[in-house]
Specification:
Elements lengths: L7 H8 L2 H17 L4 H22 L1 H9 L11 H5 L7 H6 L1 H4 L11 E6 L7 E6 H18 L8 E5 L4 E4 L3 H6 L4 E6 L5 H11 L3 E4 L1 H13 L8 E3 L7 H10 L4 E3 L1 E4 L3 E6 L6 E3 L4 E6 L12 E7 L10 E9 L11 E8 L3 E3 L5 E3 L4 H4 L5 E8 L5 E7 L5 H12 L7 E5 L14 E3 L3
Parallel strand pairs: 3-5, 3-6, 6-7, 7-8, 18-21, 19-20
Antiparallel strand pairs: 1-2, 4-5, 9-10, 10-11, 11-15, 12-13, 13-14, 14-15, 16-17, 18-19
Helix pairs in contact: 2-8, 3-4, 10-11, 11-12
């Protein structure tokens, strides 16, 4: 069920040892203590970690030594606040990772190639990047955060798990060697997401009756719609989502089709790993403050207040092999109010997606596109849709429906966008199939710049 681990064979080797398990549990316990820390205490904890990261980066990386010096960093000067210096550091861009891969390395003299692994991703942007990670530390933290997520949502790894993702079909016992050691062996059934239709996946799930399902949210909701149309339900305990934002409509469909099961989301990226976990009580996310600093800023790098969407900048506090400091991952999000669940970690109330998921107004202003799914679903003949804004600024509403739309239905679709963005031209195009591309992610709205 873990998607972003490095060096799986090394991970499995560690997890077999009592010492690795003890280390993971120790880190997990520390992460759990951060949940109850007041925000001020979280910031103090992060400032200490930032100081260590700056010190290491300055001494071990030519590229970071230059950037930190330009920001005013003076090694071993304890009078300088890490956070005040932090704000002087320009955002780290994907092009920086591409062009300065070697000089951004910050290896200690006793590290070698066998201690590292490299994560590679395009992040749905078409701009591939590589990030090096120190295997032992990354795997330890990754597994500890996975256990936190496991505990928050009270999962039982002795039960069966169906995984519908980009993997080959297989059947085996155990959710991973660590959970096997801690809880026991549950059956894991894996199925390739691309080789079968949602109708086939629905039949397969009904035949196997898993307790949990792991897949991307759009596929879970497609399967859910099929079950609802067939008058069937498949009781699940939870659905684990990854790789894309989850819409309110998808949550509602899955709740109906899977016996009240919730979609449990997480926020992560290949360059860093886990960033935020879904709240045990609500649908929003809590930032993993013990390992990560997340900023949400406007175009002038000013912090966004609660409820205002902005750019996401990520700092990985344990990225010693290749420091990731104020990394602009290309996402748009907004902060939420303090949570009533008892967890005091910062709240991300909404992920809007990437910058290409922002609608562009005639004056050049970029705004988050509203979630359209709930309103589109009211036009019941529509089976699938996608909205694209082209470079000209015009918006095309591509629709697959069970019959031709009436003039009234076309007007309703157009009004969904025009009521919010009155300056935009909206066209409705009825098609026999929606072109989603070849990747796992599906974006209901995307803005094309070319």
């Amino acid at each position: 069920m873990n998607g972003e681990k490095g060096q799986t064979s090394l991970q499995d080797e560690y997890a077999k040892t009592d010492s690795f398990i003890a280390s993971v549990l120790k880190v997990k316990s520390w992460l759990r203590t951060t949940e109850s820390m007041p925000i001020e205490s979280q910031h103090k904890m992060q400032e200490v970690q930032l100081r260590d990261l700056f010190h290491h980066a300055w001494h071990c990386s030519d590229w970071w030594r230059t950037r930190l010096s330009q920001a005013g960093y003076i090694p071993d000067d304890s009078n300088i606040s890490s956070f005040s210096l932090f704000e002087n550091i320009p955002p780290l861009l994907r092009t920086d990772l591409q062009e300065h891969f070697v000089t951004m390395r910050a290896w200690r003299s006793d590290w070698s190639d066998k201690d590292m692994f490299t994560s590679t991703t395009s992040g749905s942007t078409g701009v591939p990047v590589r990030v090096e990670k120190y295997s032992a530390a990354y795997n330890l933290i990754y597994e500890a955060m996975a256990l936190v997520d496991h505990e928050w949502h009270m999962r039982d790894a002795r039960l069966s798990l169906a995984i519908i993702l980009g993997e080959e079909d297989s059947l085996h016992l155990g959710w991973g060697s660590l959970l096997v050691a801690l809880q026991g062996k549950g059956a894991v059934m894996k199925r390739s997401i691309m080789n079968m239709s949602s109708l086939d996946h629905a039949a397969w799930l009904l035949e196997n009756h898993p307790s949990y399902l792991a897949t991307v949210s759009y596929r879970a909701s497609e399967i859910g719609e099929i079950l609802i149309s067939q008058g069937k339900t498949l009781p699940l305990l939870q659905i684990f989502s990854q790789s894309e934002r989850v819409t309110p409509q998808q949550r509602e469909i899955c709740h109906r089709a899977f016996g009240g099961a919730k979609i449990i989301d997480r926020y992560s990226c290949e360059e860093v790993g886990w960033l935020a976990l879904q709240c045990p009580k609500h649908d929003h996310l809590h930032v993993v403050a013990g390992t990560t600093i997340i900023e949400i800023v406007d175009d002038h790098l000013r912090p966004c207040p609660v409820g205002v969407a902005g750019r996401v900048l990520v700092t990985n506090l344990h990225s010693f092999a290749m420091p990731i400091i104020r990394y602009d991952i290309g996402d748009i999000a907004e902060w939420g109010e303090e949570c009533d669940c008892g967890i005091k970690l910062p709240v991300i109330s909404r992920l809007w997606g990437r910058k290409r998921n922002l609608v562009k107004l005639p004056n050049g202003e970029l705004r988050p596109m509203i979630f359209l799914g709930e309103d589109v679903a009211k036009i019941q003949v529509i089976k699938e849709y996608r909205v694209i804004q082209y470079k000209s600024g015009e918006i095309y509403f591509f629709v697959r429906a069970e019959r031709p739309l009436t003039a009234s239905e076309v007007a309703k679709l157009t009004s969904l966008v025009v009521n919010y963005y009155t300056q935009l031209m909206v066209n409705v195009c009825e098609v026999s199939a929606i072109d989603w591309g070849t990747g796992l992610k599906r974006e209901e709205f995307v803005r094309l710049e070319e």
